């Protein structure tokens, strides 16, 4: 429910819907690359492609919207920002309150070793670890669900030592991706997918066989 999200954030980040409004957080799993992105790129080859992943997600969520012809559906994508440069929604918070993935933050560590350093939090999925992404939010403004019960996300990094290791890896060594394997995972990105996301955005089109 939108109210679960708004309840844990400052008013400046609130979503402008009644508390009981139904919302879905959309995640992409490791298989998205082969099952959705590559077919999308092949099909759209002759059209303008700017950011393949964003356009692919937009394409599929727009198609999903068409499946509810009599229903108002609002979509907010993870990359959208407000004129103030703030994101339109805080993806990791949304995933946590929806029970999709646990958002580990500095406050989850009792003996904080970082002093004055800025430490960013990170979501970990119980099945995919850090090998997934939060892509968007689907909101159904006309559907109110007052009796929906909130499910807590799975706390899969449960020891203090592991949480410190996770936040250390994510904040100071994120490029090597080791934080993604903080737990044993069922599936991770393919080598091709790792190479794609490790490539600077401006060079990714060439990697997919596309030119600017």
TrEMBL record:
Keyword tags: Cobalamin, Cobalt, Cytoplasm, FAD, Flavoprotein, FMN, NADP, Oxidoreductase
Protein's UniProt keywords contain Ribonucleoprotein: no
One of the protein's GO biological processes: cobalamin metabolic process
InterPro entries xref list: MMACHC
Pfam families: MMACHC
Location relative to the cell: Cytoplasm
EC number: 1.16.1.6, 2.5.1.151
GO molecular-function terms, A-Z: cobalamin binding; cyanocobalamin reductase (cyanide-eliminating) (NADP+) activity; demethylase activity; FAD binding
Coiled-coil intervals, chain numbering: none
Reactions catalysed according to its record: apo-[alkylcobalamin reductase] + adenosylcob(III)alamin + glutathione = S-adenosylglutathione + cob(I)alamin-[alkylcobalamin reductase] + H(+); 2 cob(II)alamin-[cyanocobalamin reductase] + 2 hydrogen cyanide + NADP(+) = 2 cyanocob(III)alamin + 2 apo-[cyanocobalamin reductase] + NADPH + H(+); apo-[alkylcobalamin reductase] + an R-cob(III)alamin + glutathione = cob(I)alamin-[alkylcobalamin reductase] + an S-substituted glutathione + H(+); apo-[alkylcobalamin reductase] + methylcob(III)alamin + glutathione = S-methyl glutathione + cob(I)alamin-[alkylcobalamin reductase] + H(+)
Cofactor annotation: FMN; FAD
One GO cellular component term: cytoplasm
Superkingdom field: Eukaryota
Stored PANTHER family: CYANOCOBALAMIN REDUCTASE _ ALKYLCOBALAMIN DEALKYLASE, METHYLMALONIC ACIDURIA AND HOMOCYSTINURIA TYPE C PROTEIN
Similarity field: Belongs to the MMACHC family.
Protein name as it appears in the record: Cyanocobalamin reductase / alkylcobalamin dealkylase
